[in-house]
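Input structure tokens:
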């Protein structure tokens, strides 16, 4: 028979063993959870990095495609129109006075087409955009809309223009280009307004048309909207697109300056 003291020692011993087992189990579980969380975090970071690289690669491919199209427009289509204009000048002296007004009108159309082809080529070539800067590129696009009578376009600029990272400038411009394209093709709008508000911390862009709009709850997410959202995410910009039936569409883009923006 065990004495009471022995029973107490046995109980203490068993309790100590159980406590050690519990502590070891908790420690093991804690290490397991830590390693699992670390692995999940590493997988998430790797996935995000892959998505970032994929998005960057997609943008690079798109920009190269735009550049190739710009070259084709400028070098091939532009050259053909130039040759057509030269040939019209050559036959002008051979026409009688009655036919010359029609020839002059045709020459004007060819000349205007050549100018618009070159302007369109500039808007597609990122090197030209980088050289001209974001604001001047937007101005040129708005002027093109007004010149072609596509829509009455206005641009309002507040604050002092800040130097923005070159890659981010291209992305911001492409977002606006996508919006402009949708307005011209689908909105049936008479007016388009763009506001650029430069302050000490961020660039706030608001673009709005007065077209037919749409019911956001009834419209499927389009590739254009996805492109704008994904591009905004790449530069950590807040993006929103609001619309109501018959009240046009409004785009808001808030781009926070980076440290290297201020240093440029």
């Amino acid at each position: 028979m065990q004495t009471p003291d022995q029973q107490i020692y046995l109980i203490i011993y068993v309790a100590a063993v159980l406590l050690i087992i519990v502590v070891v189990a908790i420690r093991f579980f804690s290490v397991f959870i830590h390693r699992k969380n670390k692995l999940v975090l590493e997988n998430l970071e790797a996935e995000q990095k892959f998505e970032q690289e994929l998005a960057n690669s997609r943008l690079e491919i798109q920009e190269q495609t735009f550049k190739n199209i710009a070259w084709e427009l400028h070098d091939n289509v532009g050259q053909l129109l130039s040759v057509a204009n030269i040939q019209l000048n050559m036959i002008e002296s051979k026409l009688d006075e009655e036919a010359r007004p029609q020839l002059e009108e045709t020459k004007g159309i060819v000349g205007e087409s050549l100018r618009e082809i070159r302007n369109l080529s500039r808007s597609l070539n990122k090197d030209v955009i980088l050289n001209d800067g974001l604001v001047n590129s937007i101005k040129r696009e708005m002027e093109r809309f007004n010149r072609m009578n596509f829509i009455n376009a206005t641009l309002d600029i507040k604050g002092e223009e800040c130097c923005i990272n070159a890659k981010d400038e291209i992305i911001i411009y492409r977002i606006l280009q996508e919006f402009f394209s949708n307005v011209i093709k689908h909105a049936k709008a008479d007016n388009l307004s763009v506001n650029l508000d430069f302050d000490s911390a961020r660039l706030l862009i608001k673009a709005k048309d007065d077209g037919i709009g749409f019911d956001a709850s009834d419209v499927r997410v389009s590739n254009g909207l996805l492109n704008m959202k994904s591009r905004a995410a790449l530069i950590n910009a807040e993006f929103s697109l609001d619309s109501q039936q018959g009240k046009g569409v409004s785009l808001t883009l808030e781009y926070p300056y980076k440290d290297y923006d201020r240093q440029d």
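The chain has two domains: 1-124, 151-264. The longest strand covers residues 191-198.
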